[in-house]
What we know:
The protein is of the alpha+beta class. It has helices at 24-37, 45-57, 67-105, and strands at residues 112-115, 119-122, 128-134, 140-146, 152-158, 164-170, 183-193, 196-198, 202-213, 220-224, 229-231, 238-239.
Amino acid sequence: xxxxxxxxxxxxxxxxxxxxxxxxxxxxxxxxxxxxxxxxxxxxxxxxxxxxxxxxxxxxxxxxxxxxxxxxxxxxxxxxxxxxxxxxxxxxxxxxxxxxxxxxxxxxxxxxxxxxxxxxxxxxxxxxxxxxxxxxxxxxxxxxxxxxxxxxxxxxxxxxxxxxxxxxxxxxxxxxxxxxxxxxxxxxxxxxxxxxxxxxxxxxxxxxxxxxxxxxxxxxxxxxxxxxxxxxxxxxxxxx
Length: 240
C-alpha cells in the first residue's frame, strides 16, 4: 500500500525514481563509461586520461587515493603511451619497407622470371626457355607442349641426363615446324629411370609486364602478358 504524504513534518516515505529516469551523477557516469568504451570497447590513451583525471577530481577527500595506487596508474598510463608510440613507429617502418620493396620489384619489369608448373606464355613468337628439375640421374626425358584445349602441339625426346637442372628452349613451333599462335601453353616433362617413369617439376621463363600489391594481403606480385600474376616470393630465377 502506497504511503500518503500529509505534511512536511510527517513525511517518512522514501521516493524511488523510476528505472527510466537517471540522476545527474548516474548520467555523468554513463557518459564517462561510453567515452571510455569507444567504438571497439578498448580503452585508448585519451579515454584513460579522462578516466584518470575524473577519478582524481571525484575522489573522497577524507580517503584519497594512496600513493601506491597513484603510482601504479601513472605507470599504466606511461606504458600505454609508449605502446601507442611503438605501434605508430612500427606502422611507419612497415610503410617504408613496402615502398622499398615496390621500388626494388619494379626493376623486374621487362625481365623474365621463372613460372612454376610449366605454364608457357608465348608472346610475339619469342622462344620460351624452361628448366626441368631432376632429383636424380635419368635415362631419358620426354617433353610435350600442350595447347589450352589439351591438344599436343610439340614433342621432344632427350637422352640420359645427370641430376640437377636441365635447361631447354621451345621455339614456338609445332611438330611440323609451323609457328603457333601467341597464347598460354603448358610444357610437361616425363623422365624414365631404371624403367620407372615420373613427372618432375617444370618452370618456364616469362617477361614481367608490371608489379602490383595485393590490396587484401599486401603481398607483392608480378604480372605477366596474359594478365595472370605470381607472388614475388615465388620468383626463384630472373633472366634477361
